[in-house]
Design goal:
- It is a single chain.
- The chain has about 250 residues and is α+β, with helices and mostly antiparallel strands.
- The protein has one domain: Protein Transport Mog1p, Chain A.
- The protein has helices at about 5-15, 35-40, 80-85, 90-110, 145-160, 220-230, and strands spanning about 50-55, 60-65, 70, 120, 130-140, 170-175, 180-190, 195-205, 210-215, 235, 245-250.
């Protein structure tokens, strides 16, 4: 796989995986004058909405964050923000898993800065205190790769990154943005007895390919509704040079 296509596939596949997604080719270095941290930094929190409808025109999409979920910046304070929203200290497994996830998102941003996703955390409730989070990411669509080819490549990378014993379920869902590939599976966090449930959606547009990935440390049934609602809220937007998403009132 050539480097550009490998980077796009890896950027998408990591959104579906709690493991490491690897490519055959070496990731390109960051451009001159921009460190890895600079490439991976999210826009300032004061300029990016944390709830409701978010228009990320520079990344080619808009999305509505579900009620009860809050977007956090991906950067040095991400884990502190997650604990603040969750309200209690995270377990060791959750701390490790989320910390590794943030690092992988930052690594993916080195391949393509636009792949840095929106990350949101759900506030716990009395009936569901588990840590749950979702991400919405974007990479440029390739004019030489069909939706079927992209889906096959994503599944291939995902199967390589997960334990072969893990059962991956897939189906197609039709939404306003087009045909989504839905992927779901349960997996154990390496070195622990903690399980997570993952549900993710991918849709390819003419300019951008969007992924919505939802993970919970509780029962997978608790994220089915908000994850699908988030996916079905996706709309493709005309790309602009604006560096920051804008918001319309929460709904």
């Amino acid at each position: 796989m050539d480097r550009r296509r490998c980077g796009a596939v890896a950027g998408l596949a990591l959104a579906f995986s709690v493991g490491t997604v690897a490519c055959d080719s070496t990731a390109p270095s960051s451009s001159p004058g921009r460190s890895a941290g600079a490439v991976a930094s999210a826009p300032a929190g004061s300029r990016v909405p944390t709830t409701g409808h978010i228009v990320a025109a520079d990344r080619g999409f808009s999305v509505t964050i579900p009620d009860g979920w809050t977007r956090v910046d991906i950067g040095p304070d991400t884990m502190a923000d997650i604990e603040r929203i969750h309200g209690t200290a995270l377990s060791g497994a959750a701390q490790t898993s989320l910390g590794n996830l943030v690092k992988r998102y930052q690594a993916g941003a080195l391949l393509d800065p636009r792949s840095l996703p929106l990350l949101a955390i759900r506030a716990p409730t009395a009936t569901d205190p588990a840590v749950s989070f979702l991400s919405v990411g974007s990479v440029p669509s390739s004019p030489t790769v069909s939706a079927d080819q992209a889906e096959a490549a994503i599944l291939d990378q995902l199967r390589k990154s997960l334990d072969p014993k893990i059962q991956i379920s897939t189906l197609h869902v039709i939404g306003p943005a087009g045909r989504f590939l839905r992927i779901s599976y349960d997996a154990a966090i390496s070195g622990t007895t903690t399980n997570v449930a993952v549900i993710a959606y991918e849709v390819m547009g003419p300019v951008a390919t969007i992924t919505v990935s939802c993970t919970t440390f509780g029962p997978g049934s608790t994220i089915v509704e908000p994850c699908e609602a988030t996916a079905l809220s996706i709309r493709f937007e005309a790309a602009t040079a604006s560096p920051s998403p804008t918001a319309s009132p929460s709904r």
